[in-house]
Amino acid sequence: MTSQLTFAKDPWSWNIEDLVAAVCHSSLFQAAGCRLEDLPNAQSLEAQLRDQEVTGATFLTALDSRTLRSELGIQNLGQRTALLAVIELLRQHSTAHKQHAATIGVQALDINQSGSSANTTYANTDGRKRLKTTHIATVPLHVVQEPPLVDGTGQWDHLLRWEQEQQHVISVDDIAADAESESEDEEEDMEERSGSGEPEKMPVDTAVEAQSRSRLSQDQVVNIINERLDYYTNAWKPNHGVIKGDEINYQPETMWQEAEANGHRQALIKKYETDVLYYKHRLDQLCEEIIKSPGNTVDRVRYQCRNLEVTVNSLELSEWLLSIYRLDPVDDSDDSGDEEIRHNNLINISGENTSARGAVRTIPPRSQQRFDVIDLGSPPESSQGDMEDLLVESSPPPELPAVHRHPSPPDVDHTPDLAVAETIEPGAHAHPQNPQTTSTATKRSRGHLGDEPQHASIASARRWTWSDLTSTRDRKRIVTKALYEMNFNERETIRTRLGTVGKAEMIREIVACVRMLAQNGNKMPGILPRDLPKIVTLTRLFLSCWLGNNYLRIEPTELHLQDLGQRLQDGSPDLGTFWDYLNTVMTTTFSPTALQNPERPSQAEIIEISDDDEPSSRPSARQPTGRPQMSQHPTTIILD
């Protein structure tokens, strides 16, 4: 195939336009025998060739694998190999390049060097300098031969005996021993400087140190290598290390669709599988080389580990692209939920997550509900200590009236707003109609908070017990209680996640994570390893809300996960309600101000009652029944 190629002129004399037309807009790569998946992007290659002003002569002589990666920005090994094959093909068809290669070893004469006295220089009519050689006859010098000296004939010859006794032969072993002792002294000085806090500039090692001379054990060296590998892996993200302005806009969904439409997806899968195996093998070789010659200090080992960063970045990029193209297509006969799951797996993780508007959730009016919701910020059947907090501070503790509570059975699957309603029926000793009675009842605020536990304080959340919350399936308070038991870093991670990831994006992540947990998986396609723990924490928080228990501490069963995955596929429950409540409670109960004052009640839990502004003609029946006369100063009621 290569013999059938014909060019209008020698590739050596090509200008930029000729080179771009031949390399980027022709079948030159196929003629060189390159694979389809190794072809570089034509538009990107054309832009790089024009920016660098590469001509035919430069393309044939100055480009190698390292230059292609650094100057033209071609990071893929297969694409660089394909370009080198094209360069070799053009060299075979270039007569000028063959002449250049034949004469490259001839060195031009340097006419600027000053000659000896035997050479004379003159200029001809053309202005060129020529060198004229003059032969000069030399007379050999006379050599004076002296007879050998005889010991003991001189006046001071007796002193030579002492000099001969002090002479000794210096062997090569002594030189090596002195050099070794000097190197050990230098290494001790380097350790002292590093221990004193002075910055150490590590020189490039040109000699290989033996493992037996290293002061670090093999386990220490392996731990240092693993620590640097974890650091490089966690620091990686798409376009990591790319020069600003040369970033590639990765769009996983578009990439998958284009590869599937063109029929290249399986070829790309094989390509990236091969790349992953190559980079893993290369990484193992580099690590073995470091273990064989680690050096004597921790800083020396870390300095050598810098060679691993490029390989780790290439490995992470190949694995990330492989996870995208490995996703299976969805058949037309499948349910629409499978298409949504595949869309969720193709989440754009290039760092530009945009928050989408969620659907507006309609809450049914209170008249359509079966029971009136009474919520004082604490679960029903609270302890006597919690009831005392609801009493008026200026009055003595009265006797509580007989009140029968009948908690309604929780409907886990059809509760519209994650609330649990309860009814209160007055007993035989309810409030009498006589306003002068001395019977005293606990003053409660009916309808002040409603079903709004998001206004509870941190102190109220601390008093809630899991037994009460799980028995009543109080989902909102379960979420608040779980957030309260998190440490500071976990809570702030959720706050940051809510601010950076949109509502629709987080809902898709939770749906995909539930599916992953149901399949006992540990990876989500298109998700960075450092983001996976954050998504799992949010998913477990939703499991606590839906299943009515603390699933941040216990593991959900496979049956629960499969059932929840099926319900999410059917559109129930509404994850938008969970996101709204979580976003609200992070700005109220767990706001930065509330976290600084955890014992302070929230503003919604404080009610001020004052009789100063009431007119004297107002009937006394408007006053609370059976309550003693109150003082004239405002009274504070704290609800929790």
TrEMBL record:
Stretches for region Disordered: 176-213, 356-457, 592-640
Domain DUF7607 intervals: 219-327
Stored Gene3D superfamilies: Transcription Factor, Ets-1
Compositionally biased intervals (Basic and acidic residues): 192-203
Annotated Acidic residues bias: 176-191
Biased composition (Polar residues): 433-442, 617-640
Domain of life (superkingdom): Eukaryota
Protein name as catalogued: DUF7607 domain-containing protein
Organism: Phaeosphaeria nodorum (strain SN15 / ATCC MYA-4574 / FGSC 10173)
